[in-house]
Design brief:
The structure is a homotetramer of 351-residue chains. The first copy, chain A, is of the alpha/beta class and 351 residues long. Chain A is 34% helix and 16% strand. In chain A, the strands form 3 sheets. Chain A has an 8-stranded parallel beta sheet. Chain A has a 4-stranded antiparallel beta sheet with strand order 2-3-1-4. Chains A and B meet through helix 8, helix 9, helix 11 and helix 12 of A and helix 8, helix 9, helix 11 and helix 12 of B.
Chain lengths: 351, 351, 351, 351
């Protein structure tokens, strides 16, 4: 990392960037404060630190030890307040701000009617971002693969855009493979990388380059260091609008399953100490149980999450995918109310 | 399980119990309602159901499928309200009632002065049960093993009793081995089975027979079914005053550890659906990180826990054991305040 | 699954296939025996079984319960011997036959010289397939990403092809993303899906359609059912030349790591009971320790594996990636010798 | 650790031991070579190293970093050959020697007839130690708890002793609780600590003091460092005759279970690098599947294990406990034959 002097000229900074490229690395320039800070993308050991330290305009050259340096507080403390969170704005919705955010909608979009009916319900219940799956990652090739596998894939994306417009919510959907990125990016406000694709560095880079906020889910087999190191793949493309999402990790394989995954809520404050990126929680996939969503939503917000992602259906029993973990709009309303109070209470105490 | 008629005579019930013994099983009789319900301890398949169904006074005979039947809602719904929680009273302290309970104190008792100073602190901070370790389970034979391994073992227990009396809190300490049970039971109000001893059925049975409440911690490698099945070993001795405690399970072994264990908070509401026993959470051992205790305490209560068990020291840096996870009495005060509000809020919504 | 009569005409079979498509599913036709067996790709519940059972030429219609039906023994027992293994031939090399197969080479191709020197070494040591990584999946965007990330990506693939030709071994390399499939398929004999991409169903389908054998690695977080269910994505494209590979699963996160992953060798015979596909083992990534490779190679073959995939370097200390788990060609020689004896011994006893 | 001079007098060594006690630690003296080496049991940081280094007869004072120092190669390299394994002799049976050892017998002793019939079978099949469970650890209080829970507990132990005598095999059984130690030690040659009791330091110490070999099983939730650190509790009592046993760790909780636990065979060579103690493998409990025992036995020996512990029944379907994982004496015969060959082959190559 190269910290420039406060009186460094733009030409001096440009020269540094050129030098970095000459050594085979890329530069990540942050200008939020009165001074420029330049992060290095690539193997820092290739850089002759002494050479850079001697260049005009350079205040100091520092090694950042962590593999997720561009998104780490260790790096950003040079141009942000140490306690500051990143705030991502999508239309009039703010993620990581003073209010928790509620992303809700159907697991899979099944029809225009189903989507609009659910969109209306979640809007009334207080949610502020609409989700809906088109390209569904499925464990079995023999199961329903979402409308993305049919010839109404693009139509489904169009419905999502329309529903977002009608009910005044930004929309998010998952991009499962590289060939879907261009199409999906045309229709949605936030691009989601699902848990199973967390390690897909080619997909991450391609999605990042769309310059839209990315909702990035932790793989159920990933440690926190890995999770952040792969978020770094997005940041390394110059896109820092990353919303992290905890959605449960592999449970202990001992006897009967009471929850589908183990919701690792302690990862929420632990991650918040490492990075300024906002983190939300998905209690639907984590528990797989409708009757646990209320408690685990409250717990997630109490743990410090900036929001929730919840699957909703007006009639969970009818859903083609994951019906047993869906809640109704009325149940969502209770969660929104309780979580707003808890969020306020916890943030007040933490100041 | 044998459900007696409402007009069954005590003699008829006594006859059933005799018959059960004749088949090599034991009887667990619940009389809370107008009718007696008799649980079977042992292999139900040895019982000729038709024979029992025909005995005078018997209303019906039912098979309970789960391995933790005596503590299951499936069993107790015959003599309790389905939504009812068990309330355990220790002196004037109530566990599982309308208020969350706060168990706090040092990890290990190091001296009378240390214990009394911490006891005073946690009392002022709002805690209502005092903890203090004497017989410490340790990973290394070369580490400090607690005062239990020295010749002041009994004195340390006496200090604990005195501190409880002086600051008006019931006291709890861990019993690590069978030979310690008689001694420890003389001095404390609640006997703790630590996580590492969860599977020790001989210890469980011996502790249960002391007829004092048992604080029973989940092993870090135990599934929920196992946890409850071993709690059943305590219940099978006729002791149903069991306080369950979630304290973190084995984390994913991927890279750097950010928390010591994975706090499985979804187990709290999941367990509460299975049993009427109260469950509390220990965020200290689960996270091993002082800076995460506030958030994870709030999250535990939001998840539905009936209380918390927290390690406190007036000077965490000085503690002989686990200093990095201790908080100060002042920090405890903030937790007590936030958790009382969250508990009220969540319970209100759930009614 | 639809089992045709032995005297069913090709026209009758063709009609069935047409009918299957009409219901929105695809057909997988196996003709190895005197009768055709038609597997269904898609949701079998959409099919009116009675309707199909009544069609001319149909002997019986059966439901296959498992999510990995096309590769299951339950399905193939209708056209294969129950104990039969699948044999995949690549040039003159046979995988799943009477001899174990040894896939060896550098983790990452670093230069033409490095590759040829290692290729010569592993050939002499007895290996029969050459591996070499070009598109490397890496945990950190800041680490060396393989020559695939440079402008000599295609050249590196060309070296691999040449080395294979010169030392008479088929060659295999990993395809990490969809956009690499066409390029890589031009140069290599076997396409590898790495552990991190196991869940990437779009990549799997695209690779499968290249009609070359696929080396398919188990994700470190995948259960056996998931592993086989994703192999089914390849089979569903009509490509059954799948070589499964066990390479270690997430270890218990308790204290110091002695091995990088936990090599799940019992999965080898367990998987062999489920499917006729051959399975090999990668002890290099599983253990991450050069000093354990010999023992774990022998153990893998004793467990019933059809071969091994091992990383080799003439000077492990020099390797740019994973040097600590590389062995030398001389060490490979000892493994080949011991494993050939063990393979013979174990197979003899099992007959 | 204190290394004495070769010409140190017994008086000088005795003085050192006295000094160690004065500082609150215990001494572990090894005299196998021409010089005494004194290990410290307790917290080494309490010892003034300079003071000890200056005492007469002392060659050097060294810190041993690992928590399992008394059983580590780091410690024993001062009085053993670095590559040397420990050999434990029980009667004429040798564990850790040139031949693999086969411990076999019923999971639970059900009757004298059952035990003798199985003992005869396993002897003929080539096994050299007889096992039989009396005090059974069980997951459910409602299941059969072994004859240890009945009034023929001592008789069952007597049968075991007689069967051992008649068929000329040393015998081993599990001690589950502290109160059973004295009784069991009267009857058997080797005392077993089961997986669930691995963390029970009070039981470990009590068993160790019986001065008989201890068969010490790894807990399914224990890392290797923990496993060895608890073996150290036995060694710290002066009993180094410890036979380690790998029996499977908690599997990934993803979907259907194909094996009961994950057999961690790489732990075998990894542990062998750390300690000179012999390690054996129990494939019966690890897999829970009769049809995998042959392969996993061969794999265990190939991985470097010094022996196997296998559950055998003449009619597995009849067994009261764990019938699905039992094999017959005939199946054991095949395992013994294959494993002896593999053991020879692997050891030859490793020299």
């Amino acid at each position: 990392m190269i910290v420039m002097k406060t009186d460094a000229t733009p030409e001096q900074t440009a020269h540094i960037i050129k030098e970095i490229k000459r050594y085979g690395l890329r530069a990540d320039v942050s200008n939020r404060t009165h001074r420029a800070v330049i992060g290095l993308v690539g193997d820092e050991r290739k850089i002759p630190f002494a050479h850079f330290a001697a260049l005009p305009g350079v205040k100091e050259v520092r090694m950042v030890e962590t593999p997720y340096k561009l998104i780490s507080r260790e790096y950003t403390k040079f141009f942000r307040e140490p306690s500051e969170h990143m705030v991502i704005e999508v239309g009039s919705t703010v993620i990581g701000g003073d209010e928790p955010v509620f992303i809700a909608g159907p697991c899979a979009i099944e029809s225009k009617e189903q989507l609009f009916k659910i969109a209306e319900g979640v809007k009334k219940a207080g949610s502020n971002i609409l989700r809906g799956g088109v390209f569904k990652p499925r464990s079995s090739v023999h199961s329903f693969q979402g409308l993305g596998a049919t010839d109404v894939a693009e139509e489904a994306l169009e419905w999502l855009r329309q529903a977002g417009k009608q009910f005044e919510m930004p929309v998010v959907t998952e991009v499962r493979g590289e060939t879907q990125v261009d199409l999906v990016a045309e229709y949605v406000d936030i691009l989601q990388i699902g848990a199973r694709n967390m390690y897909d560095q080619d997909l991450l880079a391609k999605v990042a380059r769309k310059e839209k906020p990315v909702l990035f889910k932790r793989h159920f087999g990933a440690g926190i260091e890995e999770f952040l190191s792969f978020a770094e793949y997005i940041a390394a493309e110059g896109n820092k609008s990353i919303i992290l999402c905890e959605r449960g990790i592999i449970p202990l394989g001992k006897g009967k399953d009471y929850t589908r995954y183990t919701l690792d809520l302690a990862s929420v404050p632990a991650i918040q100490k490492e990075t300024y990126l906002p983190i939300i929680v998905d209690p639907s996939h984590a528990t797989g149980r409708r009757d646990l969503i209320f408690n685990m939503s409250c717990a997630a917000i109490a743990a410090g999450a900036s929001g929730l992602m919840i699957e909703v259906h007006y009639n969970p029993g009818e859903a083609l995918v994951d019906g047993q973990q869906m809640i109704t709009p009325d149940e969502l309303r209770e969660i929104v109310d309780a979580c707003q109070s808890i969020h306020k209470l916890v943030r007040a105490q933490q100041k």
